[in-house]
Amino acid sequence: MLKDYFPILVMLVMAVGFGVTMIFLSSIAGRKRPTATKESPYECGSIPVGTARIRFDVKFYLVAILFILFDLEVVFLWPWAVLFIERLGLFGLVEVAIFVGILLVGFVYAWRKGALEWQ
Amino acid sequence: MSNSAAQLAYLAPELVVAVGAVAVLALDILLPERSRRLLARATAAALLASLAAVWWLYAGEVAGRPERLFTGTLVRDGYSLFLDAVFLLAGILGALVSARYVDREGLQSGEYYALMLFAVLGMMLMAVSAELVTLFISYEILSLSVYVLSGIARGRAESAEAAMKYFLLGAFSSGFLIYGIALIYGATGTTALEAIGAAVMSRGLFGNSLLLIGMALVTVGFAFKVAAVPFHGWVPDVYQGAPLPVTAFMSAGVKAAAFGALARVLFTAFGSLSAVWQPALWLLALLTMVLGNTAAIAQTNIKRMLAYSSIAHAGYMLAGVAAYTAGDVALGSVLYYALVYTAMNIGAFAVVLVVGREGEGNQELSDYRGLAVRHPWVAAGMALFMVSLSGLPPTAGFLGKFYILNAALRANLIGLAVALVLASLISWYYYLRVVWLMYFIKPGEAPPTLSGAPSLRLAVGMAAVLVLILGLWPSAALNLAQVAALTVTAGGLPVIGRP
Amino acid sequence: MTEWILFIVLTAVAVGSALMMVLNRNPVHAALWLVLTFLAVAVFFLVLGAQFLFAAQIIIYTGAIMVLFLFVVMLLNLEREREPIVTGGQRAAAVALAFALLAVLVIAIAARTSFPTMAMVPGGITLTDLGVALFDEWLLPFELASILLLVAMIGAIALARRRT
Question: Which pTM was predicted?
Answer without folding.
Answer: 0.92
